[in-house]
Here is the input.
Amino acid sequence: MFEFQNPVWFILLLPWLAVVWAVYARRRSTGMLFTLPPGLPPPRRTWRLRLRTILPAAYLAGALLLICALARPQLVFARVTRTTDALAIQLVVDISGSMEALDFSTGRELRSRMDVVKDTMAEFVAGRPDDLLGLVAFGGFAVSRVPLTLDHSALQHVLAEVQVPRPQYDRQGRIVNEEDMLTAIGDALAVAAARLEQEDVKSRVIVLISDGESNTGVVLPEVAMRAVKALGIKIYTIGVGSTGPAPFRARDIFGREVIQRAQVTMDEELLQRLADETDGVYYNVRDPKGLERAFSEIDRLERTEVHSDIYRRHNELYARWLWPGLVMLCLALVGNMIWGRRLI
Here is the structure.
């Protein structure tokens, strides 16, 4: 939508119109009518005569453009209130150390569980443009990375930056951030439920993706589950991988990257119980295709209406009026002073 931000400057049109009248009234009053004698050729219009006609018009046009520039023309993308069928979904992803397992690799490309989960979640987010989506990441503690929002581009940006914490060692070779490698499922559910509780929508869902067992945290998973159930929130759980040995990147004594197997444990019973108690569904996925199928089924959830106010910034257009106006005004002033010995 096109509009002027400061239309009060159009009051300058009054003196501008007065100048227009003065210029052309003066030209009419200084003219003289006469009849050419027979046989004389008609007078030629020299470039000086043409300039005397053009320069006042250029001066006035330049002044008009400057007045319009002062009024700040803008292309405004105003607030739009949109009503859509949508769902409030809190994505809760495990970033504990076991998510670095490479058992989801395809072909020669080594991909961790986290890589595949992030890609699949990104496709899920892209396919639900009208839903309120948020992101909670948890290892030894839970952090709300993105509150529930319709700004999915920001969510995608944050999701792409989610990483499994790297172990940090002290001088004695001991891990100093061991808690980051653990799994606090109860805390993650509590944070997600707190975010969803604030949203006035009919359907609220938590999608929990984990590959481990809850072994730390302030809130027990069972306590968080009861709170989620009391709020009427469904939990859809996705268990990534299974209990047993899984391949991981490692380095040998020479610093070379090698693949080693390590034991991982997943509490499928807990994930199944979380889903059953809240009328959700549990999915166990062991490859990228299985993860895609799980998200595809979740994509067919019920929907409800969400009213959203969308704001978009405006584009300033005054420069497109300012510079042509200045150029025309300066040329007209210089031309009038050189050839007409006057300002206008």
